[in-house]
Design goal:
The complex is a heterodimer of chains A (about 350) and B (about 350).
Chain A lengths: L1 H5 L7 H4 L3 H6 L2 H19 L6 H26 L7 H17 L4 H24 L5 H20 L9 H8 L11 H17 L1 H11 L1 H6 L4 H27 L10 H11 L11 H20 L4 H29 L6 H7 L5 H7 L1
Helix pairs in contact in A: 4-15, 5-10, 5-11, 5-13, 5-14, 5-15, 6-7, 6-8, 6-13, 7-8, 7-13, 9-13, 10-11, 14-15, 14-16, 15-16
Chain B lengths: L1 H5 L11 H11 L1 H19 L2 H4 L1 H9 L1 H16 L7 H18 L4 H26 L3 H20 L11 H8 L1 E2 L2 E2 H19 L1 H11 L1 H7 L3 H27 L10 H11 L11 H20 L7 H33 L1
Antiparallel strand pairs in B: 1-2
Helix pairs in contact in B: 3-16, 6-11, 6-12, 6-14, 6-15, 6-16, 7-8, 7-9, 7-14, 8-9, 8-14, 10-14, 11-12, 12-13, 12-14, 15-16, 15-17, 16-17
The chains are: A mainly alpha (about 350), B mainly alpha (about 350).
């Protein structure tokens, strides 16, 4: 050991440690999931009748829109190392509030704004419980998941409010011009770009990653971790409320049990998109690919005549495969002796000292 | 600092009256709080409508309805104590229930053999979770979220649009499921027996203590030489086996098996454990608490209509209760922490 310590390593610049730019861009989890998406899409367009039809894409976008919406704030929350299981219940809550306020004769826009405000407050409640009282978000949001769903179902019972003005349903399902691109794509893309910019190009976004990697280190470097998390939980409530309004108008029905179980689909899509459940790692492009992948597999298999049950099995297997991929690569790498995980992954997942480290200190 | 070191040790605390200290010990237990809440609920509801407790059906439902959830909550508590969580129990319950129904329908196997097969199948499904969690270094939340989809998908794919009816189930099993012994339903006896075994296992055996050790500090447990992977496997296999047994209990109680069996019950099981004082981050809590939590949650469900509240509101009450329980848990933990700090300052 002394010989290792006595010889000083030559100074290396930060850039010298980094991998070449093409490896950094191409060999990531994001790229892998996007590549998988492209493969599935290409295969489906060739092999499955009607898949490449624009109308398929039109319905695909309309179907995945709520999951895509909720996945955006969920990505940010999971990167900070927390989780929000209450999102689907907020969708139900928003749907019911919107419906009840509309039934009471409020103008559509006013009902919408009030429902959204209530959902933001619901999200903020999660945030306050997590940050102010230091409670684990998993337990808090299991509780609020039952609470919000209970309020939604309690307020309307098993009835549904279905008398919506046709014009609003038409707006949601409208196409851009003569194309088969839904009008809803525009606000979706705007939101995606907004979230991507905030997460990847602003100090607030870097604070999110920092909070997920190390709460204490982030705090010492001036990130207000609690405020960040509070904002994210509130945002998650607001966006879930938006998804609830979309849901209500798209299907013309406000029900307390709308979107039951959607929280699991959203979390599956986000994790499939390469976001680490440990926090500190993930990116918006991968998440979008994850959501679209799940949606594509679903619609492709349905067109191919396969049952929805198989889709469920495939979703589960994909999710497990995606999250254990790093470990599996690690094992096979150790067996074959060629593949090496990136340095920080090795430290996380293996107790063996990596040969790379010892070489550096020589 | 030397003066404090040289100072004589503080006098030993006065021996207190044994019964009194027993009482304060009892009052300090989390389980006591849940039990008091449960009894309060019973008293209030029975005061409003005496039939709630004192009619034959009321008494029977009180112990019969929670039996299946108690089964799951015991397994869930064991898994959560090891700092994991098992979200797949609802799907496991559904799959094993359908498996049992299929065996009754297609083969002439004796009931007891089918029960054993179902429990073993549940244990295997749990073991799959355990292997993935123990060896992949991925949180159990994600793995069991995946197997939740996979197990439910397998069941639905297998069942198609089939539905197994009570006429296909051996009458002996159905009679057992609805029967009772000494005024207590058979299923309740089973849940009591399981609870007794689980309490012994968690309190007094090496396996149980190591579950707590692994949950309170996984790294320390590994360094100490505990076989953590094996213990995690055991916890998940037990949870799976109990879910398999719960599947059989479901069949014996309700007779029909549709695609929705056990849908979403995993969250009730986690909720019962959390309400019962099992900390979601592992290392503390008891199976008795989880079982009491299951009793409280299911009884609230039955009590609400009696109290004049539509049972649509049940979930909201359960949610408020879960949040209340974890806030309370946090409060007690902080008070304990402050007290220990104060004692250290004094010493």
């Amino acid at each position: 050991m002394t010989s290792l310590l006595s010889e000083k390593a030559p100074a290396r610049t930060y850039a010298a440690h980094a991998k070449p730019w093409w490896q950094r861009t191409l060999m990531t989890r994001d790229t892998a999931i996007i590549a998988l998406l492209v493969v599935v899409w290409t295969y489906a367009s060739i092999a499955i009748l009607n898949f490449s039809d624009p109308i398929t894409v039109y319905f695909l976008v309309l179907d995945i829109a709520p999951i895509l919406l909720i996945a955006l704030p969920m990505t940010l929350i999971i990167i900070t190392g927390e989780i929000d299981l209450s999102v689907a219940s907020v969708v139900g809550l928003s749907s019911v509030l919107f419906g009840v306020l509309h039934r009471e004769g409020l103008p559509m826009v006013a009902a919408m704004v009030l429902a959204l405000l209530a959902c933001a407050v619901a999200g903020a409640l999660n945030g306050v419980l997590v940050t102010r009282y230091g409670l684990p978000s998993l337990a808090v949001t299991i509780g609020t998941m039952a609470l919000f769903r209970g309020i939604a179902v309690g307020a309307l019972g098993t009835t549904a409010i279905t008398d919506w003005p046709d014009a609003w349903g038409d707006v949601v399902q409208a196409r851009i011009g003569d194309s088969q691109i839904p009008l809803m794509t525009v606000p979706l893309v705007v939101l995606i770009v907004l979230f991507a910019v905030v997460l990847h190009f602003t100090p607030f976004g870097r604070g999110i990653f920092a909070a997920g990697l190390s709460k204490d280190a982030a705090r010492f470097s001036g990130v207000n971790v609690d405020r960040t998390k509070l904002i994210l939980f509130t945002l998650s409530g607001l966006i879930s409320g938006l998804a609830g309004i979309y849901f209500t108008l798209r299907y013309g029905s406000a029900r307390g049990d709308n979107a039951t179980g959607m929280e699991l689909q959203v979390i599956a899509a986000v994790l499939l998109g390469g976001v680490s459940i440990f926090g500190g790692r993930g990116a918006i492009p991968g998440v979008i690919a994850g959501v679209v992948l799940i949606g594509t597999i679903g619609s492709a298999l349905r067109l191919d005549g396969l049952s929805a049950n198989l889709i469920q099995i495939i979703t589960g297997v994909l999710l497990i495969a995606a999250v254990i991929a790093a470990s599996v690569l690690g094992w096979t790498g150790r067996i074959v002796g060629t593949y090496r995980l990136p340095k920080e992954r090795v430290e996380q997942s293996s107790d063996k000292p990596s040969s790379k480290n010892s070489k550096k200190s020589e | 600092m030397t003066t404090t070191l040289d100072a004589p040790a503080p006098a030993a605390p006065q021996p207190r009256h044994r019964a009194a200290s027993r009482l304060t010990w009892l009052l300090k237990q989390r389980e006591t709080g849940i039990a008091v809440a449960f009894i309060l609920l019973l008293v209030v509801t029975t005061a409003v409508n005496p039939n709630f407790l004192f009619s034959t059906d009321g008494w029977r439902d009180l112990t019969l309805t929670p039996a299946i959830l108690v089964c799951l909550a015991i397994g869930q508590a064991m898994v959560i104590v090891t700092r994991n969580v098992d979200l797949s129990v609802g799907s496991t319950l559904g799959l094993t229930a359908y498996l049992a129904g299929r065996l009754f329908l297609d083969t002439g196997l004796p009931v007891i053999l089918v029960v054993l097969i179902a429990v073993a199948a549940g244990a295997v499904l749990g073991l799959v979770n355990g292997v993935l969690v123990a060896f992949a270094k991925v949180p159990a939340l994600v793995i069991t979220l995946g197997t939740l989809y996979v197990y439910r998908g397998i069941m639905l794919e297998w069942a198609g649009s089939d539905r197994i009816n009570a006429s296909d189930i051996p009458p002996g099993l159905l009679d057992f499921g609805t029967g009772s012994f000494l005024f207590i339903p058979n299923l309740a006896w089973i849940s009591f027996a399981l609870l007794a075994v689980a309490i012994y296992l968690m309190r007094s055996t090496r396996v149980g203590r190591e579950f707590y050790a692994i949950g309170s500090d996984p790294d320390a447990a590994t360094l100490y030489g505990l076989r953590d992977k094996r213990r995690v496997l055991q916890a998940f296999a037990t949870s799976g086996a109990l879910a398999g047994l719960a599947g059989i209990l479901y069949v014996s109680r309700y007779g029909t098996i549709s695609s929705g069996v056990g849908l979403g019950i995993e969250l009730e099981a986690v909720g019962a454990a959390v309400v019962g004082g099992v900390a979601i981050f592992g290392g503390s809590g008891t199976v008795l608490g989880a079982a009491l939590g299951a009793y409280l949650l299911t009884t609230i469900n039955r009590a609400l209509p009696v109290l004049g509240i539509p049972d649509f509101w049940q979930q909201a009450v359960v949610g408020a209760l879960i949040i209340g329980a974890i806030v309370l848990d946090r409060y007690f933990a902080r008070r304990q922490h402050d007290k220990l700090l104060a004692e250290r300052e004094e010493a």
